Amino acid sequence: xxxxxxxxxxxxxxxFYEATVGAGLPIxxxxxxxxxxxxxxxxxxxxxxxTLSYIFNxxxxxxxxxxVVKEAKEAGYTEPDPRDDLSGTDVARKVxxxxxxxxxxxxxxxxxxxxxxxxxxxxxxxVDEFMNQLPQYDGDMAKQRQDAEAAGEVLRYVGAVDVVNKxxxxxxxxxxxxxxxxxxSGSDNIIAFSTVRYxxxxxxxxxxxxxxxxxxxxxxSDVLRLASxxxxxx
Length: 234
Prior knowledge:
With about 230 residues, the chain is of the alpha+beta class. The chain contains 9 helices and 5 strands, in the order ααβααααααββββα. The chain is globular and about 60 Å long.
């Protein structure tokens, strides 16, 4: 990453990657705009996985955790192997991208990640084997949901960058029902920027964070910006 940025500056080239976090949502450009205008980032926190957003938005009522995962898989929200989503690695990658944008020198190995894949199932040889055995572990997730509901809270799988303390985390957290993260629907992503300028009331971006159309829109926006920088009329 640092070599790429150095080469970019030396050769006066452009390097855009908006769609790497939040698909077409203006997350990277917003972060860059805050930094370029002199703001100081204190904390970034968000629901960065459309798959896990969908799962925890629908993990309610009489549905078990494994049933919601199966539903998400059949709807095409998960990777072919849902463990790729449940492991939290995708969220950790996005945390790294945002952390580096803030000037932190972090690697994936520096990020503690709470995996939602039960340890005994990490070695399942096939996806079918994993899906068939997942219901055996519904009790733990049901207990966590019940504890949250009893406190008037919901579960959300969140990535966070603590810029002040120079660290990142990926974990399952609880939020009160009046919190913006508790009000998500579908596979929405949401991100909150806490900065010196936006300290009391974080700057929030919310919207679809997965899907071919919105991701293509994010890439196309970068292409248009590049064309503009290279002299195309506005």
